[in-house]
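User: Please fill in residues for this 703-position structure.
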C-alpha cells in the first residue's frame, strides 16, 4: 500500500471545478500554487455530471481537471461521488428514498437522499465506483480514494421496509434464534415476545417507550449498515487499484456512527470539524475531536479533511473566525497528530445551498483577510516537514463508548443525560491540567496509561470491567464516575448494587440513584436548580478538596463502602454524610469512584490529585496562571503552544519557535497565537519552504 502522505503536511481542500466555467480553472491552479496548496479533493458531489443518465458516463471534464492539476504539481484525493445520487436515480427508484421514524418519506432535492439498505443504491454506487477506478486508478495525480462523504450526516437511521428486512437479517445473524433474541431483549416485559424474526420492525414511533435493547440494536445495526455501504465501495477499489489508500471523512465526535468499528477499515483516518468561532468552549471541544481521530488510528497520522476558513452557513448566526483563529485551530490539529490541513472548500460557491459557507478563496477574492491568512498558513506548513509522521504521546486515557452514548440517552431512565457533556467535561479537565489524552475503548490497552478516566460507561461488558481492573492493578490511577456499569451489553440491569465486577475494583456498591432537580432534567420543568455540596473527609490524608468544599449538580447517589476509603462526603440534603468520592488501593494502583458531577473547580482538583498520585510530569509552557485555555501538546520533539485565551501570555519554555525563528523563552503569544518550539538542545535550520530539526548528537533529520 502506497503512503498517502507527502514530505510536508497536506494543504488544500475540496475543489469543485464543475461549478465553474473552464476559464476559471487556470486561475484556480495558479492561485493554488501561490497559496502552497498540494492536495485537493475532487468529485465529492459530481455524480449527476459523471453519470447524467443511468449507465451513461461523461468523464471528459474530469480528465481535463485531473490532467491540469497534475501538470501543476497538485495531488488529488479522488472521491467516488456516491454521497448524493442524481435526480434520475430517485425518479427511477423512489423506494430508495429514506423513511423517518415517523413514517415520512424524505424527498430528493438536497443530498444523502438514499436509504443505506437500498439494493438499488448500492448497485448503482458500485457501478460508478468501478468505472472511476478503472479510468483513474493509475492517474499520476491520484494519491488517495475518498469514499462517499460524511456517512450518516443527514440520514444515520432509515426506518423503511428495506431497512426493516436488513435489520431482521442482522438480528438473525447476531442471535441465531428468536429465543435468544427474546432473552436478550427481555420481551417478557409488556407482552413483547416474538414468535419469529418476521414479526420484528425497526423501533418506529410507538405509543410509549420502545424496547430499550431493540432500540440499541437498531443503533448498532444502522452504524453497521452504513459501514457495509463503505465496505462495498472499498472492495471494488481494492480489486481495481490495490496500491491506492482509501479513506472516508468522519465528523468529529459524532453520535450517529460508531467510529471504533469503522476505524480498522480506513487506511488513513480523516475528519471534518467546524467548531463555532463564537463559542469560547469551541477549542476545547475541537481538542477532544482531534484526540479522537488520533486515537481511532491508534496513533497514526490523520488528515483534517474539512474545516472552514471563516464562517459556516449552518447556524442561526454564523460568526466568522477572528484574525488568527483559523491558523490556531489548524495548528491544534497538527499538534494532535494530523499530517494534513484541508478545508471545505477551495473557491466559495456562487450558487447552491452552501454559497455563504466560507472558502479558502472568498467571494471577494484575494484582497481579503481570509486569503492572506490562507497564504500564510500554506507557507508555514510547507516548512514543517519535520513534523510528518511523528507521534503525539498521551499520558491519560479517557474511555469513550458509543453503546453507552446511545443507551444512556434513551427514555425511561432515572434522569435525562447528555453523554457527550459528561465525557467532554473530563477531557477538558485533563487537557487544561496540561495532559494529552487518548480516547480509548474500555477493553483496549488501558494499562499503558498512568491515568485512566472512565466517565459514565453505562453499558459495560464483563471484559471491559476486567480491563479497567487490570489497569488499576498494573499501577494506573483509575477514576470511575457515576452511571458506570449499570447495565450489561443487552441493557439488563446489573443486580446487587450495580457496577458488576467493578464493585471489587472500587470497593463500593450503589444502593439508590438520587438525581438532583433542575430544568435540565425534563422538558417544561420549573427552572429550579438543585446543587450538592462535597466536603473533604476529616482526617483522610491527601484528601482531594483540601482547600474547601466543592459544588456538584445534576446527580448524586447512595453509595456503600466495602474496602474503599472515603475521600469526600455530601454535606446537607437527603444524602448528608454519604460518600461522594472514594479511593480503593488496588494492586499497584488505585481505583477512585465519584458519585456525583462536580463543577469545573472540583474536576480540576481531582485531576490534580490523580496527576500527583500517578507521578505524571506536566509541562507548564506559560508564565501566567489562569490565563484562559492555552494548549500545550508535545508531538515528536516539538512542543506546540496555542493561546485560545483572550489575554497574551509569556512563554516559559527555552528553545526556538520554528514559525518565527525567535527564541521562545519570554516570547509573548497573543490571542490565537501559535508557537512550535524546538527544545534548547535541538538545532533548527530554516530555509524557505523547508524546515529541518537536527538533534546536536544525531546527524540526520528527525522524521
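Assistant: Residues filled in for all 703 positions:
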Amino acid at each position: 500500500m502506497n503512503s498517502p502522505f507527502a514530505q510536508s503536511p497536506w494543504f488544500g481542500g475540496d475543489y469543485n471545478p464543475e461549478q465553474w466555467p473552464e476559464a476559471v480553472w487556470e486561475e484556480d491552479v495558479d492561485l493554488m500554487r501561490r497559496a502552497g496548496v498540494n492536495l485537493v479533493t475532487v468529485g465529492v458531489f459530481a455524480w449527476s455530471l459523471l453519470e447524467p443518465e443511468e449507465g451513461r458516463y461523461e468523464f471528459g471534464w474530469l480528465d481535463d481537471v485531473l490532467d491540469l492539476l497534475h501538470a501543476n504539481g497538485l495531488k488529488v484525493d479522488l472521491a467516488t461521488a456516491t454521497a448524493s445520487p442524481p435526480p434520475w436515480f430517485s425518479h427511477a427508484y423512489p423506494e430508495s428514498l429514506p423513511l423517518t421514524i415517523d413514517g415520512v418519506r424524505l424527498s430528493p432535492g438536497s443530498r444523502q437522499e438514499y436509504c443505506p439498505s437500498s439494493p438499488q443504491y448500492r448497485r448503482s454506487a458500485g457501478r460508478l465506483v468501478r468505472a472511476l477506478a478503472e479510468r483513474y486508478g493509475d492517474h499520476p495525480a491520484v494519491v488517495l480514494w475518498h469514499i462517499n462523504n460524511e456517512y450518516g450526516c443527514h440520514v444515520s437511521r432509515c426506518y423503511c421496509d428495506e431497512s426493516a428486512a436488513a435489520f431482521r437479517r442482522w438480528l438473525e445473524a447476531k442471535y441465531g434464534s428468536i429465543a435468544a433474541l427474546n432473552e436478550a431483549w427481555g420481551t417478557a416485559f409488556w407482552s413483547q415476545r416474538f414468535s419469529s424474526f418476521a414479526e420484528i420492525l425497526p423501533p418506529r414511533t410507538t405509543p410509549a417507550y420502545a424496547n430499550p435493547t431493540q432500540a440499541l440494536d437498531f443503533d448498532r445495526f444502522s452504524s453497521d449498515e452504513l459501514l457495509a455501504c463503505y465496505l462495498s465501495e472499498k472492495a471494488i477499489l481494492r480489486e481495481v487499484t490495490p496500491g491506492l489508500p482509501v479513506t472516508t471523512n468522519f465528523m468529529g465526535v459524532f453520535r450517529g456512527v460508531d467510529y471504533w468499528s469503522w476505524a480498522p477499515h480506513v487506511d488513513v483516518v480523516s475528519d471534518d470539524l467546524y467548531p463555532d468561532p463564537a463559542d469560547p468552549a469551541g477549542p476545547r471541544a475541537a481538542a477532544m475531536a482531534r484526540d479522537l481521530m488520533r486515537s481511532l488510528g491508534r496513533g497514526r497520522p490523520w488528515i483534517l479533511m474539512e474545516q472552514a476558513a471563516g464562517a459556516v452557513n449552518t447556524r442561526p448566526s454564523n460568526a466568522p473566525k477572528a484574525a488568527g483563529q483559523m491558523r490556531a485551530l489548524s495548528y491544534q490539529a497538527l499538534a494532535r497528530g494530523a499530517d494534513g490541513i484541508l478545508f471545505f472548500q477551495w473557491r466559495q460557491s456562487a450558487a447552491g445551498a452552501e454559497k455563504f459557507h466560507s472558502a479558502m478563496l472568498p467571494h471577494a477574492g484575494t484582497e481579503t483577510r481570509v486569503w492572506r491568512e490562507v497564504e500564510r498558513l500554506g507557507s508555514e506548513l510547507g516548512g514543517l516537514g519535520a513534523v510528518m509522521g511523528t507521534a503525539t504521546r498521551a499520558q491519560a486515557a479517557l474511555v469513550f463508548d458509543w453503546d453507552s452514548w446511545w443507551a444512556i440517552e434513551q427514555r425511561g431512565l432515572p434522569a435525562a443525560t447528555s453523554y457527550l457533556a459528561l465525557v467532554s467535561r473530563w477531557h477538558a479537565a485533563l487537557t487544561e491540567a496540561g495532559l494529552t489524552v487518548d480516547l480509548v475503548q474500555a477493553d483496549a490497552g488501558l494499562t499503558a496509561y498512568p491515568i485512566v478516566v472512565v466517565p459514565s460507561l453505562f453499558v459495560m461488558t464483563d471484559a471491559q470491567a476486567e480491563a479497567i481492573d487490570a489497569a488499576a492493578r498494573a499501577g494506573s490511577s483509575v477514576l470511575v464516575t457515576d452511571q458506570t456499569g449499570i447495565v450489561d451489553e443487552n441493557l439488563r440491569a446489573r443486580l446487587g448494587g450495580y457496577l458488576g465486577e467493578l464493585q471489587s475494583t472500587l470497593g463500593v456498591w450503589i444502593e439508590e440513584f438520587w438525581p438532583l432537580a433542575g430544568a435540565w432534567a425534563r422538558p417544561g420543568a420549573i427552572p429550579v436548580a438543585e446543587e450538592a455540596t462535597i466536603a473533604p473527609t476529616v482526617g483522610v490524608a491527601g484528601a482531594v478538596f483540601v482547600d474547601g468544599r466543592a459544588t456538584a449538580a445534576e446527580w448524586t447517589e447512595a453509595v456503600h463502602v466495602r474496602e474503599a476509603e472515603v475521600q469526600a462526603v455530601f454535606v446537607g440534603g437527603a444524602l448528608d454524610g454519604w460518600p461522594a468520592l472514594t479511593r480503593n488501593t488496588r494492586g499497584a494502583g488505585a481505583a477512585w469512584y465519584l458519585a456525583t458531577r462536580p463543577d469545573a473547580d472540583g474536576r480540576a482538583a481531582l485531576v490534580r490529585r490523580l496527576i500527583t498520585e500517578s507521578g505524571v510530569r506536566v509541562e507548564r509552557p506559560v508564565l501566567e496562571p489562569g490565563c484562559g485555555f492555552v494548549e500545550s501538546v508535545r508531538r515528536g520533539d516539538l512542543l506546540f503552544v496555542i493561546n485560545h485565551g483572550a489575554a497574551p501570555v509569556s512563554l516559559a519554555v527555552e528553545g526556538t519557535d520554528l514559525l518565527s525563528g525567535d527564541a521562545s523563552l519570554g516570547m509573548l503569544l497573543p490571542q490565537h497565537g501559535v508557537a512550535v518550539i524546538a527544545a534548547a538542545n535541538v538545532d533548527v535550520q530554516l530555509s524557505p519552504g523547508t524546515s529541518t530539526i537536527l538533534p546536536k548528537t544525531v546527524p540526520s533529520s528527525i522524521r
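For context: The two ends are 20 Å apart (CA to CA).
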